[in-house]
Request: fold
Amino acid sequence: MSIDPSIYYAAIPAVLLVGLTKGGMGEALALMGVPLLAMAVPPVQAAAILLPILVVMDCVSLWIWREHNDRTLLKMLLPGALLGIAIGWATSAYVPRDALRLIIGLITVLFAVRYFYISWRARHGHIVQAKPHRLLPAAFFGTLSGYGSFVAHAGGAPFQVYGLPLKLPPRDYTGAAVRFFAILNFIKLGPYFALGQLDTTNLTISATLVPLAIVATALGGFMVKRMKPEVFYPFMYAMAFIAGLKLVYDGVGAFV
Reply:
């Protein structure tokens, strides 16, 4: 087994960005991870290399955010997410991933633009109330998140579309998000292995990047824990907007 050292020129910045995200800094940075690594290896291999690293990052994040959670958010979104993973596994050979990226990206961009418009109105006297939990939107965005996570590593944006308007305490929101994606990534290991994507070469590359992944995740958690709500929510919506633009760019680029 021979591993080209040049892979690490792309893998190191990819793991740094994804680690900051897993610490709690938003989906936009994570979306840069696979494209960066895909500059050195095929996209499917890039996703396979990152998945075990994501699981290690999840373990670090679960420890960092162990005292913070919102169980209701998890209960609302997890059933749909598990269904989405199952659908993604069953249809992975038939559904164009770029079309999914485009759809999720457009939804997320509109969602973020709406937030900044409402925030502008709030500064001019219009009061915006937090949204309550709703079963149908939770089922829809949960399924979209699980499906997007499996087929395109794009599950964070639908989670944000449902979760951010609830206006939960930032630490509770982040703790719930960490638990949500830890569960999804652990479940995805089985299907990825069954599809033959977790071979010896990919797992070896993943193992060498684990120390960097741990440091990056801890740094992300350190930064987010010190954000006030009035900073956290605009930052997260900005991350969602950037994530949406990246998904739209990837989706449109595949069809041009």
Remarks:
- The first helix runs from residue 7 to 25.
- The chain is about 80% helix and 0% strand.
- Residues 19 and 191 are 23 Å apart (CA to CA).
- The two ends are 37 Å apart (CA to CA).
